[in-house]
């Protein structure tokens, strides 16, 4: 996504802030990073293998410290008609844990409907991923898309 397609007001509002986006999954949490205006686009930041809540929170804490995160965006799944999915409750539980562990950080929710499908298509159309879906990278690419969507509206 090109900066010109992003919401200028939102970009200016968050200029220079270090933003972490999480694509929560029961097995893997994809991460993306963005510093509006100072960087041209969001980029993948890796993934966390979701073994246990304490370990996951410890790894997220490390990312928050290393990247000096100012706020977090978490993708929340919905059906195409906007209704909640079976995963929505798990993500809301995860968001509650994030709020408990990091009460000083603002946290935003962003609809992640079809982000995984969009990530697959992006990978299939990109030489960066050899025009193939890389399942080890899919979650972080999804997090990039969720982050782009946050700034696209």
Would you kindly provide a written description of the structure presented here, covering whatever features stand out?
It is a single chain. This protein has helices spanning 8-13, 53-67, 88-101, 115-124, 138-152, and strands spanning 19-23, 28-34, 43-49, 71-76, 107-111. It has a 5-stranded mixed β-sheet, sandwiched between helices. It has 5 helices and 5 strands; from the N terminus they run αβββαβαβαα. The longest helix has 15 residues, at 53-67. The protein has one domain: 2-Layer Sandwich (Nucleotidyltransferase, domain 5). The chain is globular and about 40 Å long. With 153 residues, the protein is α/β, with parallel strands linked by helices.
Summed up, what is this model?
The protein has 153 residues and is an alpha/beta fold.
Biggest β-sheet description: 5 strands, mixed
CATH class categorisation? Alpha Beta
* Mean pLDDT over all positions: 91
**Low-pLDDT residue intervals, each spanning 5 or more residues:** none
CATH architecture: 2-Layer Sandwich
Strand content: 15-25%
Order of helices and strands: HEEEHEHEHH
Secondary structure: number of strands: 5
Q: Spatial order of the strands in the main sheet? A: 3-2-1-4-5
| Number of separate domains | 1
Spell out the blueprint of helices and strands.
Layout: H1 8-13, E1 19-23, E2 28-34, E3 43-49, H2 53-67, E4 71-76, H3 88-101, E5 107-111, H4 115-124, H5 138-152
Parallel strand pairs: 1-4, 4-5
Antiparallel strand pairs: 1-2, 2-3
Please supply descriptive tags for the structure shown above.
alpha/beta, five-stranded mixed beta sheet
């Amino acid at each position: 996504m090109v900066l010109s397609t992003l919401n200028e007001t939102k970009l200016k509002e968050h200029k220079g802030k270090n933003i972490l986006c999480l694509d929560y999954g029961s097995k893997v949490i994809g991460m993306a990073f963005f510093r509006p205006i100072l960087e041209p686009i969001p980029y993948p930041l890796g993934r966390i293998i979701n073994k246990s809540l304490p370990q996951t929170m410890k790894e997220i804490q490390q990312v928050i410290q290393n990247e000096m995160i100012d706020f977090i965006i978490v993708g929340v799944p919905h059906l195409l008609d906007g209704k909640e999915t079976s995963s929505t409750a798990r993500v809301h539980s995860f968001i509650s844990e994030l709020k408990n562990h990091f009460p000083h950080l603002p946290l935003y929710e962003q609809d992640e409907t079809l982000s995984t499908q969009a990530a697959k298509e992006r990978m299939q159309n990109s030489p960066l991923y050899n025009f193939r879906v890389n399942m080890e990278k899919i979650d972080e690419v999804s997090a990039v898309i969720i982050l782009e969507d946050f700034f696209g509206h």
